[in-house]
Automatic annotation (TrEMBL):
Keyword entries, A-Z: Signal
Domain of life of the native organism: Bacteria
Protein name as annotated: ABC transporter substrate-binding protein
Coiled-coil residues: none
Native source species: Streptomyces olivaceus
Fe/B12 periplasmic-binding domain ranges (all copies): 62-337
Family as reported in the entry's similarity comment: Belongs to the bacterial solute-binding protein 8 family.
Residues of the signal peptide: 1-23
Length: 337
């Protein structure tokens, strides 16, 4: 595992008790087919997820999550007792020091490879929490529709919602996506108070960072570099880095891209002349290797961030939708001041 150039320590640690709710899930079409819901109490509940209304007769008890940010949303809500396990590679940083380390300790790491229908069925999952390009992929036949056919429900990460323009993603601001998922899952698992406590705490943390962040003409132009040498993979307006950059006091140079994570041309980066480059640290290529590439790539030689050696490294989980986003804003705001 590569060494991490980690940002400031995360500021939020919440003691969250486990929820004790029912067992399985049904959608509206399931109810129409004859499924029954218990009368009275909290259930059934309906939430809107990526434009689809989903009704839950009981709280899912065997959830499988895909990827680190999604998994930590469940942990932040104290829902590890409702999980069958999680799937993610082992390149996501040191998981023993995060606020939700007990969630990782208590929950089974099902696979370090790709999530699949076979894995989900082996885990006896009643719900898969994943997203488009966060596990769900038509090319591999792993989709919410495919899971529905074998009796497994799904919840889509709101950052990954498709907006109707081909496969482009994004229907709301990135932090709004995080807050939406926390509130939806709070309702689904009958932990709405926990969800509201998290959202309020995160809003306060973001407001404190914004109060100290650069403003007006002092806002530096910032580019997010994820990966890629022929063409850079970066963030548009609907991926986490957009809100992280802008609320930390930066001017996101790709704010006009109506997509989440996407590819652009180097000529666009050069033309927009970022003054700071944020490096997404994950995968087989270390943050230092990425920095060295950017410094040595001749077309970027006159870009302000490269000339002035202004690079900031954040971890992958800081930048995708996750409960670490507010702390990432605080950390980046310090670097931009």
């Amino acid at each position: 595992m590569p060494n991490r150039l980690r940002p400031a320590a995360l500021a939020l640690t919440l003691a969250l008790a486990a929820a004790g709710c029912g067992a399985n899930v049904s959608q509206e079409e399931g109810k129409a087919a004859g499924a029954t819901a218990p009368s009275g109490g909290h259930y059934p509940v309906t939430v809107e997820n990526c434009g689809e209304k989903k009704t839950f007769a009981k709280a899912p008890q065997r959830v499988v999550t895909n990827d680190v940010g999604i998994t930590e949303i469940m942990f932040a809500l104290g829902l590890e007792d409702h999980m069958a396990g999680y799937v993610m590679p082992d390149d996501k940083g040191d998981l023993t020091t995060v606020p939700w380390k007990d969630g990782y300790r208590k929950t089974k790491w099902l696979s370090k490879e790709r999530i699949s229908k076979e894995l989900v069925l082996d885990a006896r999952a009643d719900l898969v929490f994943a997203g488009w390009s966060y596990g769900f992929n038509e090319g591999e036949g792993f989709t919410p529709a495919a899971l529905r056919r074998v009796g497994v429900d799904s919840y889509l990460l709101s950052e990954s919602c498709r907006n109707g323009q081909g496969k482009s993603r994004g229907v709301m601001a990135p932090l709004d996506a995080l807050y939406t998922d926390l509130r939806n899952l709070g309702k689904v698992f009958d932990v709405e108070d926990r969800a509201e406590t998290l959202v309020a705490s995160f809003r306060e943390q973001v407001a404190e960072a914004q109060a100290k962040a650069p403003k007006g003409a002092d806002r530096p132009r910032v580019f997010l570099y994820d990966s890629g040498e022929d063409k850079p993979f970066t963030s548009g307006a609907f991926a986490g880095p957009h809100d992280i950059i802008t609320k930390a006091g930066g001017d996101h140079v790709m704010k006009d891209l109506e997509d989440s994570w996407t590819t652009v041309g180097w000529e666009t980066v050069v033309a927009r002349d970022p003054e700071v480059i944020v490096i997404n640290d994950y995968g087989d290529t270390t943050a230092e290797q990425k920095r060295k590439f950017l410094k040595s790539y001749k077309p970027l030689a006159n870009v302000s961030a490269v000339k002035n050696d202004r690079f900031v490294t954040l971890d992958y989980v800081d930048l995708v939708e996750s409960p670490r986003n507010p702390a990432a804003i605080s950390a980046l705001a310090e670097e931009l001041r």
